[in-house]
Design goal:
Helix content: 10-25%
Strand order of the largest sheet: 7-6-10-8-9
Distance between the termini: 12 Å
Radius of gyration: 21 Å
Strand content: 25-35%
CATH class of the largest domain: Alpha Beta
CATH architecture of the largest domain: Roll
Number of strands: 10
Order of helices and strands: HEEEEHEEEHEEHE
Length: about 190
């Protein structure tokens, strides 16, 4: 029912949505996720440095420190946690911890509905709505040109964001060409 209301309202040109309120992940620190690879370096302590891949449960394991929650956190937050836990073992105040993301594997989103090749897609860089639809082979002959971006957050219910793909491709409304966040779903009725 929601999709038909969006289609009807968009067809009449009456959909008003404040796209500027949506998160642009390019403007903040990367959020780590399962399967991302990290290089953790403890300066002057190579025996405590390690490479790590975030497991499906969202954790990594480091020498001496043990398991740490990494998924859902930024490299800066993880670095602070590692630094705090290492204080019990490293007394040298000049030891600095760095967390480098060496592989991005957690950035995934779904494209479904009237597209040529729907499914779960991934990229090594942030993707816009138009790029995600292109990755899915474009709209098929049954597509209306309207898209619903379903965005969910752990702390709030999923939001359904109406997007008129034709207005993006015409250049009329580039603000609708949102950057996808990991976990987003694009549905093309």
């Amino acid at each position: 029912m929601f999709v038909s209301l969006v289609l009807a309202a968009t067809a009449c040109g009456t959909v008003s949505y404040d796209y500027s309120k949506e998160l642009d992940p390019r403007k903040s620190e990367f959020v780590l996720g399962a399967a991302d690879a990290l290089k953790i370096t403890v300066w002057k302590n190579p025996e405590m440095s390690s490479d790590a891949r975030i497991r499906p449960d969202g954790t990594i394991t480091m020498p001496l420190v043990g398991d740490l929650k990494a998924a859902g956190r930024t490299p800066g937050q993880l670095r602070a946690d590692i630094t705090e836990r290492l204080r019990a073992f490293v007394k040298d105040e000049t030891s600095t911890v760095t967390v480098a993301v060496t592989e991005v594997n957690s950035y995934r989103f779904t494209v479904s509905g009237n597209v040529e090749r729907g499914g779960i897609l991934s990229a090594k860089y942030y993707v816009t709505v138009a790029e995600a639809l292109a990755m899915a082979g474009g709209l098929n002959k049954f597509a209306t040109g309207f898209v619903t971006l379903i965005r969910s957050a752990d702390t709030q219910p999923a939001r359904r964001i109406p997007i008129d793909y034709r207005r993006i491709t015409s250049g009329e409304h580039p603000e609708e060409n949102l950057v996808l966040v990991s976990g987003d779903t694009l549905f093309v009725p």
